[in-house]
Amino acid sequence: MNIPFLDNWRKKHDAGRSPLVSAFDRDPEGAAELLAECELLRARAQEAGVRLDDSPRSLAALDQLTPRWRDDSEELPWVGNDAGLYLGTVLVRTVPGAGWHLRPDGQPVVLLPSGREINVVEAGLDWAVTGSPELSQIYAEAAEF
Predict the structure, then answer these.
(1) Is residue 123 classed as helix, strand or coil in its secondary structure?
(2) Is the distance from CB of 123 to CB of 138 less than 8 angstroms?
(3) What integer is the mean pLDDT of 54-68?
(4) Separation of alpha carbons 14 and 3, rounded Å
C-alpha cells in the first residue's frame, strides 16, 4: 500500500537512526556539554577528594581511585559509561582537532584528526570493570597521533 504521508514520516523517523544523532546535528556544542556532565563519576570522584577539571592529570587521578563501584552491579555500568564520556570530554577539550561523533545508533565516539575513532564508552566500561586499560593510558595513546 502506498501512503505518501507515511513515506515522508518514515524518512524523518528512520528506525536505524538514533534520535540523539539528530539532536547532536542540531546543537553539537549543547550535546557535547551534556556528554561532559558525567554526574555519577564526578560525585564518586568528589567523595574521594579528586577534582575533575577536564585535564589529562585528572584521568590519572581517576585511575588511582579505589573501585568501590565494582561492588554494586547497578552502579558499575553507570560509572563505566560516565568514565568513558569523561575520557572523551578530556580528549575533545585538550587534543587539537579531536571531536565528538555519533554513530547512526547514537553511540558517542571521539574522532581524532588522524581519522582514528575511539569508542570511549567501551573503554570506560572496561576501565570500570577491570581497571585496565587505564584512562590516562588511553588518553596518552590517543594524544600521540
Answers:
(1) helix
(2) yes
(3) 96
(4) 16
